Amino acid sequence: MHWSRWGDPAKAQPLDESARGMVEMFVGPLVDVPTVELEQVVLPPVGLTADQVAGLAAITEVATDAESRIRRTRGKSTPDLLKLRAGDAGDAPDAVVRPGSHDDVVAVLAYAVEQRIAVVPFGGGTSVVGGLAARRDGFAGVVALDLARMKRLIAVDPESQTATMEPGLLGPEAEALVGEHGFTIGHFPQSFEYASIGGFAVTRSSGQSSSGYGRFDSLVVGLRVATPIGDLTSGSAPANAAGPDLRELVMGSEGAFGVVTEVTVRVRPLPAEKVYETWRFPSFTQGAAAMRVLRQEGIAPTVLRLSDELETMVNLADPASIGAAGDGGCLMVAGFEGTAAAVELRRSLVTARLTELGGTDLGVDEAWATGRYNGPYLRDSLLDLGILVETLETATFWSNLTRLYDGVKSALAASLPNPIVLCHISHVYDTGCSLYFTVAARVAGDPIAQWRAAKAAASDAMIDAGATITHHHAIGTDHKPWLAREIGPVGVEILRAVKERVDPTGILNPGILIP
Amino acid sequence: MHWSRWGDPAKAQPLDESARGMVEMFVGPLVDVPTVELEQVVLPPVGLTADQVAGLAAITEVATDAESRIRRTRGKSTPDLLKLRAGDAGDAPDAVVRPGSHDDVVAVLAYAVEQRIAVVPFGGGTSVVGGLAARRDGFAGVVALDLARMKRLIAVDPESQTATMEPGLLGPEAEALVGEHGFTIGHFPQSFEYASIGGFAVTRSSGQSSSGYGRFDSLVVGLRVATPIGDLTSGSAPANAAGPDLRELVMGSEGAFGVVTEVTVRVRPLPAEKVYETWRFPSFTQGAAAMRVLRQEGIAPTVLRLSDELETMVNLADPASIGAAGDGGCLMVAGFEGTAAAVELRRSLVTARLTELGGTDLGVDEAWATGRYNGPYLRDSLLDLGILVETLETATFWSNLTRLYDGVKSALAASLPNPIVLCHISHVYDTGCSLYFTVAARVAGDPIAQWRAAKAAASDAMIDAGATITHHHAIGTDHKPWLAREIGPVGVEILRAVKERVDPTGILNPGILIP
C-alpha cells in the first residue's frame, strides 16, 4: 500500500484526456496539486520513553522508524489522504508493535495498562472513518498494534463449513488459504485487497457479494478477543438463546473493547461458475423496486447493484469508459456464483422476473467484476487535480428510500460548489437496502474544512431521515456525533458501561466509537 | 391457560390403554398422582404495603387477588408444574400490574425504583427455565408486570415488509393481525398458542418453521425498550455498521435490562400453499447429513425436522399413534410454504436431493402439522401417572453433533432410572443444528430433586461438548451456572456492567439471566 495513496502505485489510474474533459465540464478547470515526498513528512518525536520502547520490545517486535510510523498514521479517508499529502503526520503512533500471537497481544495489553499507553489495533489500515486516530491526552503515548504477523489459518471444519483465522490476514491471503481447502469466504468489499479479517469483523464490513454470501457480521460464528481484563471467547453454536449475543457486541467495536485475535467464519464451496450480467432500468426507482422484489421473493443473485442515472452516465469506477454509457436509464449488475446448476436455475428465475419488472437484459459483462476494486485509485487521480472526492454510505427500509436519497443529495448539493453526486445500491435486504454516494467537487479553500461541512450536512440528512449513519464503514471518530443521535443516550450509556468494565484504564483505541 | 397445567383444559390428552401399556413397558408400573385444586394452593401474604399497592394503582391496573397472583407464579417447566400441582405458590408475585402503554411501563418502573419493588415482565408465562421466579431479598416486594393489555398492531409497512407490535400479543393474535394485511410472521414455536411477541424477542425463541422463516431474533429489525434510565430505541436500518448491534443485547435479556414495549419484525406474504411431507432415513446420522446438505446447498424447505430412532418409534407428539410407526429408521418432516410455484420448485429440488442422499419419500402427511402444538399436553398426562417428563435443548456445529448427542444421552441414562430419551433436530443452520431431547422416567423420591440432578448432568454434558446450554429456551434461573461456563468470566462481567448501568437499583427481574 502506498503511504499516502490507495493501494499499489503500479495500478494508479490517471485520467485520460476525455475523462479530464468531462470532469472539467462538470466542476470547472483542473489544477495540478503537488504532494510531499515521504521524506518531507513532519513527524512528531517518539513520545514513549526508551524504557517503554524496550519494555514493549521485550514482549514482541517493535519499530519506531519514521516510515513504519508514517505508514500506520490514520486510515484512508479523503481527509486522511489530504493530511498526509500535505506532510502532516501529527497523529502518527509513537511506535509500531507487531505481536506474533494471541499471547503476545495479551502481554502487550498488560504492559500498556501498566504504563498507560494507548493501543490502536491496526489491520489493513483502510479505515475511512478516523478509526485509527486515537486520542493521545492522558496517555504516555500511542502504539499501533499491527496484526500483520498474525496470519495463520488456524482450522478448517469442512463438515460444518467454517474456518478459523488470525486477524492479520488480508482479504486475498485469507481467500487463498481457505481456497486451498476448496472454500471461499465470499467477502469482497472494495477494500478487499488491503483490508484484514480482524478489521472486517470489528467494523461490520459488507462486501460486494453480500446479497449472496451475506455481510461479514452474518458470516462470523465465533470470536476470540483479548481484553485488558481477560479473554472473551464466543460462538458456542451457530445460534443460541444463551442471553445477549456477545459476538454482536464485539462486532462493530473497532478495537475499543478488545483485540480480536481469532475469527471463525462460515465458508462455502468455491463457486464452479461466476456469471455477471448487466441490465438497464428506466429509472432508479424502478430498478430499486425490482431489487426489492428479487430479495423479498428469495431469488436475489449473489451480486446485486444498481447505479442511479448520473452514476450510470459517469461510470466513475472505470476511467476508461467514463461518459461512454449513453443510453440513459440505470445500470444494474446481477452476478451469479455457485454450481453450474444453481447458477443456471437462479439466472432463469432472475431473468424472468427482471424482465417482468421492466428491465432490459444487456447480457453478460465482466467489466464491473474486473474493475471492482479500482474506485479508490481514481480518487487519488482526482485529488491530484484539485477535485475533492469522497464516499458516504447509509441504509434504510425500502419505504424510506426516496426520502433518504433525496435528503442526502440535497444536503450535498447545498454544501459543496457544484458537486457531482453519484449513488448506487450495493447491498439489499428483505426489508431495505444501502445507499452509497460518491461525491466530487472542486476544492475551494481548505479542502478538509470543505469536506467536513459537507459530510456534516449529509450525516444530518441521514439521521433526520431516520436512517443509519453508516451501513458498512463503521463509526471511528468521524461518525461519533451521529452515532449518539442514532442510538440515543441509553445506547451511549450501554457502550460506555461495557468499555469501562473491559478496559478500565481506557487504553484501547481511546476516542474511537464511543461518544 | 390452565393455572397448573399446559394450555386449554379442553385439549387435554389423557393416555389411552395402548399408550399406557407401552409407557409401562418402558418405565414400569404407573400410579395416579393427585394434584391440588386452585383453592388449596398455599399463597404467601401480599408483601407490599397498602400504600404501595395504591401507588401502583394510581398508575395503572393492579390486582392482588389469589387467582391473579397464582396464575403469574413461575412458568411452565416441569419443576414449575410439580410445585403448583403440590400447592406451592411460594414464588407468587405480591401483585399483578397491567400497564396499557409504553408510558404506563415507564411510570411503573419509576415507581418501582423509588420503592425498591422488583418487577418481573410477564408475557405469556411460558418460560421453561425459571425466567419468572425473581429473587425477593433486598426488595419491598415483587410485582408481575403483565403485558396482556398491550396488544396493538402499531404499524404495518407493506413495502418494507415489516410490522410493529406491542409485546403482549400472543402468537395467534399477532398472526391474525398481520394476516389481515396479507402477511405472516412465520414464527411457530411449540408454545405459539400461549407465548407472546415480547417473550419471543427477549428469549431468542425459535419456531418450528425456522429453516424457512428464521429464528425470531433474525426476524426482529427494531425494538423499543423502557429501562429505568430511559428509553432505548434501536433498528435504524435492516443492517448497519454503527457500532455494536444493541438489538442483539436486548434479545436474550429476559427483562433484566428493560421492558420491551414495541417489536418490529420482518413479515412475509401469507403462503398460498403449505405442503408437509414425511421421509424415512436409515439412521439419525444419515438423516442429519441430508439436512446439512440441503441447508448448505441453499435448498432447505420451510420446515425441516428429524426424529432419532427412538423418537420415531415412540412418536410422543401424537398419543393416538404412539408405537404405531413400525418400519424403523428415522422420520423426517419436510414442509414447504410459499407461492405455488415456489413450493413446486423447492419440493422438486428437495425430493431429488433427499432421494440421492438415501431418503425414502413417504408422501404428504399432515399429522405432524396437526399435532405440532400438542406435546406439552402429553407431559401433563404423564405427570398425572407418576412419570417425570421434561425437555432439554442445545445446538452445535455439524462436526460436533454425534459427540453432543451421545454425551447428553449418556448423562441422562446415568442420572435417571431407566429413562426414555428421545431426540430430534428441528432447527438447521449452514454450520450446525439444534438437538431437542424429551426425557421420561418414573418418579423415584422427590421428583424435583430427581430432575435437577438429571438436568445438571445433561447440562454439564452440553458444556463439556463445547455446545450451548440453550438453543431457544433462554437462561432464566435454571441455566445460569452453565451460562457462566459458556461465556466465561469476561462475558459475565459485560452482562453485569450493562445491568448495573441501565438498572442501577436492580429492580428488573432480579436473579434472572446474569450469573
UniProtKB/TrEMBL annotation, chains A, B:
Residues 89-270 form the FAD-binding PCMH-type domain. This is FAD-binding oxidoreductase. The lineage of its organism: Bacteria, Bacillati, Actinomycetota, Actinomycetes, Mycobacteriales. Pfam families: FAD-oxidase_C, FAD_binding_4. Signal peptide: none annotated. Gene3D superfamilies: 3.30.300.330, 3.30.465.10, 3.30.70.3450, Uridine Diphospho-n-acetylenolpyruvylglucosamine Reductase, domain 2, Vanillyl-alcohol Oxidase, Chain A, domain 4. Belongs to the FAD-binding oxidoreductase/transferase type 4 family. PROSITE patterns: FAD_PCMH. It comes from the Bacteria. Keywords: FAD, Flavoprotein, Oxidoreductase. It comes from Skermania pinensis.
